[in-house]
Amino acid sequence: MEQNKNTLLWIVIAVLLLLLFGGFGMGSYGMMGFGFGFGWLFMILFWGIIIWLAITLLNAASGRKDDALEILKKRYASGKISKNEYEEIKKELR
Known about the structure:
single chain, mainly alpha, 2 domains
């Protein structure tokens, strides 16, 4: 039973590799080839990295203001700064 699973797995891998590398560039499967190798995979990876980077930068930019307000609230709650200082710093942060 285990040998049948391994054989099926290798057949699936071989078919996928043929689809990916079968028409590498111009040639065999028409004018533009079929599959273009790993081009589509790298395009998905490229756009995934770009989207991840944009989200990370946006979260970092907006997170700094929230972090500063949280620190200010904690300092006021612990009594390290007065209410007047709290209000002044809060205005500056916004």
